[in-house]
């Protein structure tokens, strides 16, 4: 502990306040989720998870994240690369746009897609004519998930890549490397931990997103429900134990995310890549 | 391979980095681009490497126009000021990089790459450090890895940007002598950028002095040191004493004393605003007025006896500061003390007209 001049009672008080807060607002809910989930025994718990509607929600959540995360990975790397390594007009606008999903309420994000692709929306009639469904269907859910998880990877990489500068890439170029070789051998290894960190956060948000997905989903059981939406439905219908059982999946995801985050931070420190801590 | 740069101009927004610069680097020579920061020397080096595109002008390699060749195709070795080692690769992998990224048809075999890397690491005296990461090396070691990496692709030209800029004084000294020896061994045409005149004069075959984006003077170290073309060059290549005076006929009048104008001045010219420069080691001090030499009186303000020579700070009656450097024996023989008034005489000097000194700029 660092030596400081604060008296013992001040330190004790501040530490206890922090611990009580942590217990009350973070630990207690987590414990509550698992106690409630297991209140009616392990049998009910696994039955709730094995239900076809629950399985379909898990599958849809994995699908949405499975599409959104890789797309945002590619987009995030491309955007961060462009922003950090090149100067071009409109760069500031692009940075602001990347942040847009953070500043807009997820419900509004969902509504935007309803306005664009919904039956009464801009492309609604055209989509209906061609028998394509976006809103109240899987594509809408995927689109909404992509939108809300848009900034995570780019946001993580931009400061990292800006700090690293372009000298190593220039050195590689003078040594005769082609564009792809420079990217795969120099740039990518230099950002791998930051990238993984961004992907972990992006994935956590993609699987846990409620607001935006709720607006575009239409809550069709077994078809357009993700895990968070399924939890809400179960809870509203007074299936508390089942709701908590499914919710515990998200809680486990959160714990795994935290552990992965810590591991990546540790590895990144070891390899000397400073991560941006803004989330 | 020889390098020629012809009429290169480069601007960054409103800032003109290079104005109509023309230089020649003969094959096999080691040339220094010397100048203060902002003089355009690094920009010129980056243009030769193809990392920067000039607004106008041409770069010739062995007489062939290389201006539109990309950095990849120029086959130059470039050593960056801050080394730019690949931080995620070992020393070995850093050196091997240039060979590994070659197209399959030109790529050496694994064994050949292995041998070449070991040979280069031996050349830069880092044989045992192949497995280290760049972060585990000292500045001087990183610099040598950067050099080995640049040499690995057998470049025709070696370009070094402030190669010793980030190192401490002792390592700098050692490394620049080592660079000179290395250059003599492999004989590759080399250009290096520096702001340190000692470094340029000690290491290079030729020195190009840049100032405000223009070439101020080009020549061998002796030429530029002994015959500076402008007050700027004179100033930049070492400490100077500056006197304002006027030239009349074959005499230079400097306040309270006069002396013969140096022989390289045009005879009979009259210049009311001449600037006279004299190096500190070309001044002599004495208790008695020297008989055959022009002299003036000055008071000793400070003495620095530590170092190869004794540095003496003086002021004239008019309050102008004077710096003189004396050998230790001379200093002891005179028994100089702070506060003494002595006679200063000038053994040699350089006279520039006012117009030239305006052109060259101040210190």
Offer a concise description of the structure.
The complex is a heterodimer of chains A (279) and B (363). Chain A is 78% helix and 0% strand.
Structure description:
The complex is a heterodimer of chains A (279) and B (363). With 279 residues, chain A is mainly α. Chain A contains 13 helices and no strands. The radius of gyration of chain A is 23 Å and the shape is globular. The two termini of chain A are 26 Å apart. The mean pLDDT of chain A is 88. In chain B, helix 2 (91-100) runs parallel beside helix 4 and helix 3 crosses helix 4 (139-151). In chain B, strand 11 and strand 12 (251-254) form a beta hairpin. The model of chain B is unreliable at 358-363 (pLDDT under 50). Chain B is built from ten helices and 20 strands. The two termini of chain B are 36 Å apart. With 363 residues, chain B is α+β, with helices and mostly antiparallel strands. In chain B, strands 6-7-8-3-9-10 form a six-stranded mixed β-sheet, sandwiched between helices. The longest helix of chain B is centred in the middle third of the chain and has 18 residues, at 169-186. In chain B, 40% of the residues are buried.
- Major sheet: arrangement of strands of chain B: 6-7-8-3-9-10
Averaging pLDDT over every residue of chain B, what do you get?
A: 87
Shape of chain A: globular
Spatial separation of the terminal alpha carbons of chain A: 26 Å
Which residue ranges of chain B are poorly predicted, with pLDDT under 50 across at least 5 consecutive positions?
358-363
Q: Calculate the terminal CA-CA distance of chain B, rounded to whole Å.
A: 36 Å
| Strand composition percent of chain A | under 5%
Supply the number of helical segments of chain A: 13
